[in-house]
Fold each of these.
Amino acid sequence: MHFSPQEEDAIWELVELVKSRKSEPTDNEVDSLPRREIKAADIALFGRMLADSPEYNIEAAAQVAHAITTHRVAVEDDFFSAVDDLNQADERGSGHLGVHEFGSGLFYLYICINREELKKNLQGDIELAKKSIEAFVEAAATVSPSGKQNSFAALSRASYVLAELGDDQPRSLSNAFFKPIEHTCDNTESESIRKLDSHRTALDRVYGSSTKAKVLNVMDPNSNTLKDIIDFSSGDE
């Protein structure tokens, strides 16, 4: 279970009470630990589900799609061996042989944040909701998954960020890559951005749009900065 800071404080208070009276907590004391009204950014963004106590469930304010590559990816094999550092001179060879599979690609990632739901989950704390969005947007653009980083050092930052703000029904632009970018193109990155923009323009032409937008493009010397995107997304403009 994910606990909010308020719930953690209640847990430690109960721990101290149990220690002082030298008895186990009662069922009522344990059942009273979860709170309906909490202020925890991670729970407010990604939700919480308790199957046996649905009254403490929190509806997630953020939706994060699986990242997909904009082109076809070939899975490669990385052969490795492991040798015991304490081997004696007459003990040759490795203690383990294995293969890591890996791929390299340009990924499209879609994230949607319901700002009203976020404020509701944070009990109307507008300032905390703003800080939560700022931290989330910065992490999405700059932080890479930590798995296998010591082996591959796959530390990348977003090349292109499109931030949209409005009351329209949210929509992903992943359909832009139904047909993958061909490896024969001059620049996979530029072609991916072109197809993304083209698909967005086509959707807006057919369905209309009242959203505001701001773009970060590392290949454009006149592009907005990450701070501009953060301020825009958090409503600080």
Note: Residues 14-70+104-146+156-233 form one domain.
Amino acid sequence: MPDSVAQQQLTHQLQHAANYVLFGGFVLALAGEMIFPRFAGDGPQRRVAHGLHNLLLWIAGIVVMSLAFGGSAWFALNWLQAHGVGVLAMLHLPDLLHAVLAFLLLDLCDYFFHRLSHNLRWLWLLHAVHHSDPAVDVTTNLRQHPAHILLTQLWKLLVAAAVGVPMWVFLLHETLAIGMAHLHHAAIRWPRWIDTAFAWLVITPRMHWNHHSPEVALTNSNYAVVLSTWDRLFGTFTPATADSRFGLDSLRDARWHSAWGMLTTPWHARRLPRL
């Protein structure tokens, strides 16, 4: 870990990087979808309508997060680091080892929360909004129920408190996770060699497409956010397939895909025996 002054500078730079990746990465992924489309799919009018519904849901999530947290999440992360809260902080490890372990544990805990979101019924009702998208593209990354976004943020804060994560490591992981999520969902015709070259270490786009398949065995696989190590270690890894079907069969009707339909999915879908 860098000294305090350098750490503050790095944290500041990573804040900017996260914003660049969030917005700039989204635009680049959109461009990639137009230049190297995964398949012909629907016409532009349908794609624009699809993207706007997902965007409206994302805006609702931003509003909920702003009302719930404001700047308190950032304040809490700073306070935790300043007061040395967390197991790794109390162990007084060498700076580099502390940083590496913190990054790995953050990624591992993201894997477990994602897996819980599939295996706890009430969490799955929220997370199913993301999985119900039958036309996965970069806007699907925006398609997250506000309540699930809120719970995800609370989980991250709890993990940071328990582990003892330096701010710059937290931001580095968030920046990588955002960038990879754009790539995972982008409707780009990725070459097969990407899986051969990188799937041993990270989740590749085609691997994540498995996760959006309506087939239960594939949906409940490849939970990891950055490192594919966790899926391999815990037996939830599936290699990239040629299946290009997405969504959830029980949530195919158009009423589930408007912004209002997505917001109310957890309430209305609770009666369905299986999603």
Note: The chain has a mean pLDDT of 92.
Amino acid sequence: MKAVIRADASSYIGYGHIMRCLTLAKELKKEGVNVNFLCREDEGNLIHSIENNNFNVFSLPGDINAGKDAELTAQIIADKTGNPDFLIVDHYCLDISWEEFIRPYTGRIMVIDDFINRRHDCDIILNQNFGIKAQMYDNLTPQNCRKLTGSSYILLRNQFREIRKRIKPHSGKISKIFIFLGGADPTNETEKVIEAVKLIKNHEISYIVLVGDSNSHRKEIESICASMPDITFCRQIYDVAGLMAETDFAIGAGGSNTWERCCLGLPSMMIIAAENQRILVENLAEEGIIVNAGWYEDVTASTIASMADEIIADKNKLKDMSRKAMEIVDGEGVSRVVREMLN
């Protein structure tokens, strides 16, 4: 069986699409599926990272529209990969027009989506976000489309599933805080949070700051962290789950790390750093799973510090957030998705 994944990463859109597709690719590979990637050569792409994970990547130019993307994708599939059994698409800029063009070149099409805002010609649609219901896609997908919706299908790397087995119930005490605002963090929320650290009243707390290679501010952030003895700076590490397991609280954005934190029962404060994160963050906050700091333009260092001081003092709230987070993400999502695909 063969599969082709069409997804991108860049300094602007971040790592999330590629990271969850890599997770899916590895699970498919374990089942004997031959997986290839098609990615644009945008600044901050993760093509080398995909190749380092032993997957072949066919490159597309970075400055093309959806129509040209479809043409080149079809050409590569026809010339290089042969018609795959599955074409997996994880891309906000590609819709039914792209999918209809590609349809003759593949057996089935699977779309990974976060927005319920455009029509698709697909056989499976996956929206792993909390609170999403299958019927939301009734008017956007073919009648026979299989709809995989909700947090039970979240695509998480195996390291989180394994670390989760060793996680103990949260004590309600915070001694170390994990700070990660996404692989790219184009609005530099990381530096804002570091400024907030200087204002947090409890000085017995240490911090881990993680940035990705696509973060254009990484050198400045590293320099600031070096001047603060309570902060450990980390860049582009593999064992994120092990790093997070050392901490008691997190400050992050509404990207894919949200689900990693939930899987490990790590209570968190979340900044809405992009419009596609808004509904997710608001839904999680409404259920008491996270604390919503608000839209990034409205959030200041003093806001973050004030909210952190309040959370640190509320042990029962921290325990409750941790328990609720673990209930919605069990780390088995990728296995469920692959079973659905192969069936």
Note: The chain has 13 helices and 13 strands.
Amino acid sequence: MKDRRIIIYAALGLVALCLLLALYFFFFKKPFKINTPFIDNQRQAIVFKDVRYSGEKRGVVDWEIKSKVARKFIDKPIVEMEDIDGMYKPRPDVAVFFKGSVGTMDTEAEKGSVEDVDIVYKNSYTLKSRFMSFDFKNGITSTTAPVDIKGTKLTLMGIGLTADTGKETVRIEKDVTGYILTEKGRYRFESDSFTYFLKDSTYVLAGRVVMKGEDMNLLCDKLVVFSSNNEVDKVDATGKVRLISKGTIAKSEKAVYHFREDRIVLTERPKILKNNVEMEGESIMYSLSSGKFFINKPKTRIDK
């Protein structure tokens, strides 16, 4: 009988010790709210409800994650979460909000992943993906899954994404499709990759780029879109540029689309081909409003 009581007391002591350890690790990582936990013996974890985690830089909270259910493992700094709602500040004046169904987090490394992700950026763009990995310490978010981005002026779909807050870039790795909405109309595009430079408000599409307007198709190796105040200012196309409009093909190594003037200027060995007639010039200008080409100092060659 005495031995049985000793065993019971020892078991109760072990349970109490586990609870104290779990509470210590949770409070060490600054959970703001914590309800009464219970032990998941099968998984060697302490289960909490309505938990909030946060991280700081220079005394300012730069990320936090709230979870309806969290399992903190006793023997490792891993937390499993359900019904996730979070916030991340890449800059003090910018907040990115995200939600997910389930996820895991390494509380020491401040790394983890979230499934069924829904992200809102500046109340202007939303991003959806099957899963997303995050590294709060290094400011990197990434996925290899398909992504779907929707905004007031820009819609994008592709496979794989890397957002680097240090470099202030967002990159879609491959199979990019989407469209840009401008005051001149809507332009569809396709490319191998897409990179957005937040600091300069520029978009770079690279590798087999196609940009389609109402009456013209623009093909090139690289397309740089410059914008300000959420409006496109100009587009630079370089590398094997092809401008196709109403049966006319214009070729060059560089073209600049000036949106305000509604014209495209082709330079660097530009030429036009129509009905077996090829014309070269120092530069070629295409007016989108009239649909006509204008050649500066033309030279003509007729193919028989």
Note: The CA atoms of residues 110 and 136 lie 6 Å apart.
